Fold this protein.
Amino acid sequence: MKGFVAAALILFAAAPAFAQCTDAEKKALETLDHAWGDATTRGDKAAMATFFADDYQGFIATGTQGKTAAIEASARAADQNRANPADAPRVEYGSYSYSCTPNTATITHRTTVTARVDGKDQTFYNRSVHFLEKRNGRWQAVSNAGGPLDDAGVLAYMEREWNDAALTHNRAWFERNYAFDASDVSSRTGGIMTKAQAVADAGTDKTAFKSLDLSDLNIRVEGNNAIVTGINHEMGSDAQGKAFDRRVRFTDTYIKRDGRWQVWATQGTTIP
């Protein structure tokens, strides 16, 4: 099956709107979202009730769901997971984006769920959108939406996370998301690196990126293989402290193994 990146183009085209939130607001909203998720996982009704406005309406596959119904559904799911801990899904949140006004906020993020299916771990991805209002001085959810991500959506998020990992020299991201037989052609040197070399380079590279901005994304999916092309606008300074401002056109090849996408090959060329 082939997929195109229409959703991903919207995701990245909309990014400038998220600049309204200060770093402190972003941190507070992410902390709130993690606390909400933790209360949901535990099935703690009293804690969950503090995150929902009384007039909350969530959008689910069968229609809408009010505050009481949302809390009861989460509590039932938590009870089932406690009764069958070996089959309880593992949930991770990441790739946060925010929009803020003095009294309203929107949180979007990717949710990664790893669950046992027929005796094997399978990974599923969803996009969540939370709409909040400030009531009596604290944020409460007034609505909630979201749904499963298709392969193109997952790969769009991975490209964004890849940039975040490069900004922070996060070796763990490369260790997890590069296939064991990945090849990485450096846009700086033209040399080719194995996975082990790319992971090591992520931790020792002295390049200090100020910003990395994606554009012109095109994602093509065929079965368990995918190709992503685009442009990365890179600003920062090199190992010698020399500033750079360059645009790199890249081709990233992915392979789906064990139910999740992994980087198989990557190559970038600096645009003159």
In short: Residues 1-19 have pLDDT under 50 and may be disordered. The radius of gyration is 20 Å.
